[in-house]
Amino acid sequence: MSLLAANATLIITVVKIALLLFIVLTVNAYLTWFERKVVAHIQSRWGPHRVGPHGLLQPLADGVKFLFKEDPTPAGVDKFVYFLAPLLSLALALTAIAVIPFGPEPLHLFGRDIYLGIADLNIGILALFAITALGVYGIALAGWSSNSKYPLMGGLRSSAQMISYELSLTMSVVGVLLMAGTFSLREIIDAQKSSLGFLGWNVLSGPFPQILGFLCFFISAVAETNRAPFDLPEAESELVAGFHTEYASFKFAMFFIAEYTSMITVSCLCSILFFGGWLSPFPATSAWAWTHYLPSVILLPFGFWVIWDGIRYETIFGRVILPAIGTAIAVMGAAFVLRPAVNEFIQGPFWLLSKIFFFLFAYVWIRGTLPRLRYDQLMNVGWKLLLPVSIANVILTAGAMLVRGAR
Amino acid sequence: MSPQLAVFFVLAALSVLGAVSLIFQKHPIHSALSLIVVMVSLAGLYLLLGAEFVAAVQIIVYGGAIMVLFVFVIMLLNAGAEEHTNISKMAGVAGIPLTVALAGFIAAAIARSNETVQAAAQTGAVASTKGISNMLFKDFVYPFELTSFLILVAILGAIVLAQRENE
After folding, report:
1. Radius of gyration of chain A from Cα atoms?
2. What ipTM describes this predicted complex?
3. Bridge partners of B164?
4. Do A134 and B56 touch (CB under 8 A)?
5. What average pLDDT does this structure show over A85-99?
6. B163 versus A52: which is more confidently predicted?
7. How many helices (H) and strands (E) does chain B have?
8. How far apart are CA A118 and CA A100, in angstroms?
9. How far is Cα of residue A195 from the mean position of the Cα atoms in its chain?
10. Is A140 in contact with B71 (Cβ distance < 8 A)?
11. A199 pLDDT band (50/70/90 cuts)?
């Protein structure tokens, strides 16, 4: 028992890591389902709908397929680097998410304050950029080690793209850092607190609203994560599948998970740096107190709808599991209404998750809407548009802070 | 052994192993990868000393930007395994005694110094982000700006040389 007490911090951290890993991987799986569904509806199709109700079991089927597919190693590959590359990609993508704080208040459990988030670093944003900077290697090395022409081209393209867009990605954040005066993500959110609700967020307020910074950041981040319309490294009409052409089975899945995890990290960063993180968009006055019941207002009807939708199916998943999930959601919604303390605790995570969800949707929305850029267009946008605009943003923010004072 | 000391020995061993492997690897990409290991474990050592800003910048600039360029160039040139020439053999013959001599000098210097080496001696105020920015932009602003001007000149020179070849 004393051993448990002595190592409590360590045990709590390990449990938190395991829990976050589980959540992130599950969200990743259902993000693929969400993406396919949304893109399908944008293109007037149904998307996955055969495996389970609404195709909800599709990610599971895909996962099993990834695990059991044959995993051939092509001839003449550089074995060590070939195996290292997907590991590196996945490990770095998952490490990045450890820096993100998910809620303002600690959870009181076993007489301890447990903060939502694994590592609350005072150089949070710098640590994230350090991890992103290393992320290039996974893709570049995968392309090089495959001993094949298309992956090499894909890897080269991708490293060139990531080096180019990392500049504007980093420069576009400097405005926010200037206004907050700290690298800590938690303090950056706290600096955006105001009695006016969403008018205090960095994107709209401060000495100089960071709308330009946000646009630069989001566009560069989409390019940095190799997503459409900047998915040139895997342009299938030119390069087959780019850097991961020679990867099959679970090694391919690792690249896949890494890409989706980076999407989640970028969405977290967008909401934290520019959209107030866990701050509610509504003013903190008593006239707006009813907005604290928004989580319940969303969860209760959604839970009932899931129950009603589930019993229409004839399968076990539809008849049993879906109603069970629906009941759990509805009970959660009811608990938030009945227990004001729980409701207050859930406000921060609720708003942060809503914003993250919105940015994930924006990712998919952009993919379903915009055609892929040509390679020279990609380089022009990065170097001749985003970089000057983000540098101008830094100068304008610094000037505005000199003239109007810091916030 | 305190946890910090254990972490120090792991990181120190990693950086030394990375440096040795950098020399003995036959393929340039493997050498570059070893160098990245050295850079990242050095960043870990800075972190251990309480210089978190320097650690992050070490990874971003050396581990990220510079080494990516190295790897990029090696990939672009499609450099193959190392070949031994007469000069490289001579470097081996002359290099090993010189390396031993250098290591001996450093060891002697450390052994003769009377002061006990203090871990995390000057961290906090100086090594923090604020301390470093104060030094760069207040105390040493002219040397700092001059250095950046020098780098700018070097970049412009590289562009001019590259353009001349095109014409």
Report:
1. 23
2. 0.78
3. none
4. no
5. 89
6. B163
7. 7, 0
8. 8
9. 28
10. yes
11. confident
* Four-residue CA torsion sign, A108, A113, A114, A117: positive
Give me the residue from B30, B52, B72 closest to A140, CB to CB: B72
CATH of domain B1-80: 1.20.120.1200
| Tens digit of each residue's pLDDT (9 = 90 or more) over B127-139 | 677 888 888 888 8
% chain A with pLDDT above 90: 5
pLDDT attached to residue A274: 87
3-state class percentages of chain A: helix first, strand second, coil last, to nearest 5: 75, 0, 25
Render pLDDT for A248-260 as a digit per residue (tens, 0 to 9). 778 888 888 888 9
- Would you tell me the crossing angle of helices A249-274 and A58-68 to the nearest 10 degrees? 130
Q: Share the mean pLDDT of chain A.
A: 83
Q: Compute the distance between CA of residue A361 and CA of residue A189 in angstroms, rounded to an integer.
A: 22
Q: What are phi and psi of A109, to 5 degrees?
A: -135, 135
Q: How far is CA A396 from CA A26, A166, A203, A220, in A?
A: 42, 21, 14, 20
**CA torsion sign, A378 to A379 to A383 to A387?**
positive
Of A121, A163, A183, the CB nearest to B68: A163
Q: Name the residue among A126, A134, A140 with its Cβ closest to that of B75.
A: A140
Residues shown for chain B: 167
User: In sequence order, what are the residues at sequence separation of 6 or more whose Cβ sits closer than 8 angstroms to the Cβ of residue A274?
Assistant: A176, A201, A202, A203, A210, A213, A214, A217
User: What is the number of helices (H) and of strands (E) in chain A?
Assistant: 16, 2
Q: Do B75 and A156 touch (CB under 8 A)?
A: yes
Q: A2 versus A24: which is more confidently predicted? A: A24
Angle at B96 between CA B90 and CA B101, to 5 degrees: 130
- pLDDT on residue B104: 92
DSSP H or E run through A67: helix A58-68
